[in-house]
Amino acid sequence: MQKLNLKRVKHAKINHNFEATKHLVFKSTNFNLSSLMYRFLTLILLLSFSSLFCQTSIGDLKEISEKIYGPDNVLINGSSYVISHPSANGNPFLGDNKFTPSTINLKGRSFNNVLIKYDIEFQMVILKVDNSYGSKIITLRDNYIKDFNLHNKHFINLKEKGINDKSIKFLELVYDGSFIFGNYYSKSFLSIYSNKYPNGKYTKTKVSHYLFLNNKKINIKNKRDLLLVFPEHKHDIKKFIKKNKIKFRKATNADYFKIMHYCDEFE
């Protein structure tokens, strides 16, 4: 009990000294600081005082900072999310209807272990933020997202690759060379109402394969579609697929990578 009280006293001293110094510094400098610079100077002050009390961890400092300022403004930049058909059978997400610890790159900054879901009906990345003020669920802005990892899949924002497609925002990247190849995931809500589905239902996840070459989007549904992209080398491609015993209907990302890497030699 005595050790616990001493720790509380130390934290109280840190908070008191920090608040006093923070007030003195920002009052005397009279800067019109941005949120990012304000946080930066704040952390410097926190670290300065933490050196006086070695038992204060970085986690403690982060907790104190978030209590004062809230979560990072870049991370929580977006609008509130509301699921379109909450009572329907199924869900509009990739995988289960639960938030998963993931990594996401926003505005060139990487955030690890953030809780996200991917709504593949409307291609929206949903973020859950837990802090001292409670939970907040928001839709992240598309133009903020560079890429993210979810369920062992790496998704990219096509606009970051200079591709402005009307129907595809995010693509699971499988191959990136002189052309791009990847998987597009989608679901749809079916307005089918019955005793079994009184509130409608969502379709199963559909996976489509797309190749982006010379400002063209090509849907690769089978081997024939791929051969039409490289007609002058179709015999070589056939031999390669046969030699590597690749079945297009059962092809994995590793199989597709091999094929695309081989085809890229022709470009």
Description of the structure:
The strands form two sheets. The protein has an eleven-stranded antiparallel β-sheet. The longest helix has 28 residues, at 2-29. Helix 1 packs across helix 2 and helix 2 (35-50) packs antiparallel against helix 3 (58-69). The relative contact order is 0.09. It has six helices and 13 strands. It has two domains: 2-69, no CATH class; 78-219, no CATH class. With 267 residues, the chain is an alpha+beta fold.
Topology:
Elements (H helix, E strand, L loop, with lengths): L1 H28 L5 H16 L7 H12 L8 E3 L19 E7 L2 E11 L4 E8 L2 E7 L4 E6 L2 E5 L12 E7 L3 E7 L2 E2 L10 E2 L3 E8 L2 E4 L3 H7 L4 H10 L9 H12 L3
Antiparallel strand pairs: 1-5, 2-3, 2-6, 3-4, 4-5, 6-7, 7-8, 8-9, 9-12, 10-11, 12-13
Helix content: 25-40%
Instruction: Tell me the domain tally.
Output: 2
Number of strands: 13
Structural class: alpha+beta
Q: Using only CA atoms, what is the Rg? A: 25 Å
Beta-strand residue fraction: 25-35%
Q: How large is the count of helical segments?
A: 6
- Mean pLDDT over the full residue set: 81
Unreliable stretches (pLDDT < 50, length at least 5) are 2-14, 16-33, 49-62, 64-70
Main beta sheet, described? 11 strands, antiparallel
Straight-line N-to-C gap: 71 Å
Global shape? globular
SSE string, helix = H, strand = E?
HHHEEEEEEEEEEEEEHHH
How is this structure best summarized?
This protein has 267 residues and is of the alpha+beta class.
Distinctive features:
267 residues; 2 domains; 29% strand; globular; disordered N terminus
